[in-house]
Amino acid sequence: MAYNEGMLRDGALENRTIIVTGGGTGLGKSMAAYFLRLGANVVICSRKEDILEKTASELRQSTGGKIIYVPCDVRKTEQIENVIAKAVEAFGQVDGLVNNSAGNFISPTERLSYKAVDTVVDIVLRGTYYFTLALGKYWIENHIKGSVLNIVTTYATTGSGWVVPSAMAKAGVLTMTKSLAFEWGRHGIRLNAIAPGPFPTKGAWDRLFPEELAAKFAFENRIPLARTGEHQELANLAAYLISDFSAYMTGEVITLDGGEVLAGGQFNFLKEITDNQWDAIEEQIKSATRGGKSPE
Ligand SMILES: CCCCCCCCCCC/C=C/C(=O)SCCNC(=O)CCNC(=O)[C@H](O)C(C)(C)COP(=O)(O)OP(=O)(O)OC[C@H]1O[C@@H](n2cnc3c(N)ncnc32)[C@H](O)[C@@H]1OP(=O)(O)O
Ligand SMILES: NC(=O)C1=CN([C@@H]2O[C@H](COP(=O)(O)OP(=O)(O)OC[C@H]3O[C@@H](n4cnc5c(N)ncnc54)[C@H](OP(=O)(O)O)[C@@H]3O)[C@@H](O)[C@H]2O)C=CC1
């Protein structure tokens, strides 16, 4: 299927250096792999050095691309500045940032401790604005037209129970995306976001939803396109948004969720009605119309 194939031409990201936070696992790893295939230099960072090292060496081998890793907790500004310094030392400059690192718990909110809420909000919101601010200062000072891609969620817009710290933080990231897109447009700096629906990853699946809970809810049934996302589909959109192919787009959030977020449509409950029932309903509506009844 085309959705498992790379979309941009070979070399589309040549001479670009892109930092991917949380690039050692899941969607971050898939985006990093595709950026490398398109010729970018990639810097992955997150807390766990052993995982970063393994991913960097795997991707170096599989893509032949230039990748380095730098351990970093995105809640720590000095560690973020170290990532940027190491990236500049290795590749000369930084052109793009994907804020992908996240933490999340599924839980009734009243069961969360203050620290649990802080943990998620600090990684998602604070981590994202720290990294964006550090790179923004560097870009403005060095007259570089950088590009930021923030990975949010569909519930950043709709809100959602049971993931409240994540929803609050992702909503903040979305507002930052739009606000800074306007403010930093004059520097040629662009910020965009992707709101993914369910994409199978170990981080989201195993840690967020224990198997017992997952078995109870068939996610595919909630999605109009009746499947979960393929990593390459997200990597294709990410590569487009981080590249100059999207040079006229800024402050935008693109939902990539097979239509899952549309479930709130007022008449969507009609999904349950069968073809036979529709035949009967149509006949009733037509006969009421033929009867010439006018509204009271
Ligand atoms: C087919 C069905 C599958 C459906 C799947 C659908 C998925 C849909 C996607 C929805 C949108 C997804 C958004 C995402 O963000 S997915 C990303 C998921 N990835 C992660 O969360 C990253 C992995 N997680 C971690 O690395 C860590 O868990 C985390 C960084 C978040 C926290 O680690 P840390 O070591 O910093 O934290 P502590 O363990 O010290 O805990 C801090 C406090 O938080 C409390 N805590 C921890 N876990 C929970 C929990 N599950 N529920 C409630 N509270 C929790 C912990 O007790 C600490 O607080 P206290 O000290 O006060 O006790
Ligand atoms: N998978 C899905 O269905 C969906 C995912 N998303 C978003 O996509 C992104 C990727 O998620 P996914 O790949 O599924 O999950 P993962 O758990 O694989 O990715 C999360 C990454 O964040 C890193 N991370 C966590 N805490 C920190 C920290 N303090 N500092 C630096 N890095 C940190 C982790 O690395 P380490 O532990 O080494 O620090 C890990 O690599 C997230 O932003 C998530 O919210 C949104 C909607 C749906």
TrEMBL record:
Say where the protein is mainly found. Answer: other
Question: Any keyword Oxidoreductase?
Answer: yes
- Which keywords are on file for this protein? Fatty acid biosynthesis, Fatty acid metabolism, Lipid biosynthesis, Lipid metabolism, NADP, Oxidoreductase, Peroxisome, Phosphoprotein
What subcellular locations does the record give? Answer: Peroxisome
Enzyme Commission number(s) from the entry: 1.3.1.38
Superkingdom of the source? Bacteria
Pfam families linked to this entry:
adh_short_C2
Using the UniProt record, name the top-level EC class of this enzyme in a single word: oxidoreductase
Annotated Gene Ontology MF terms?
trans-2-enoyl-CoA reductase (NADPH) activity
Q: Which GO terms describe its biological process?
A: fatty acid biosynthetic process
Q: What is the role of the protein in this entry?
A: Participates in chain elongation of fatty acids. Catalyzes the reduction of trans-2-enoyl-CoAs of varying chain lengths from 6:1 to 16:1, having maximum activity with 10:1 CoA. Has no 2,4-dienoyl-CoA reductase activity.
State how it assembles. Answer: Interacts with PEX5, probably required to target it into peroxisomes.
Q: Give the protein family.
A: Belongs to the short-chain dehydrogenases/reductases (SDR) family.
Under what name is this protein listed? Peroxisomal trans-2-enoyl-CoA reductase
Q: Which organism is it from?
A: Dyadobacter jiangsuensis
Q: What is the lineage of its organism?
A: Bacteria, Pseudomonadati, Bacteroidota, Cytophagia, Cytophagales
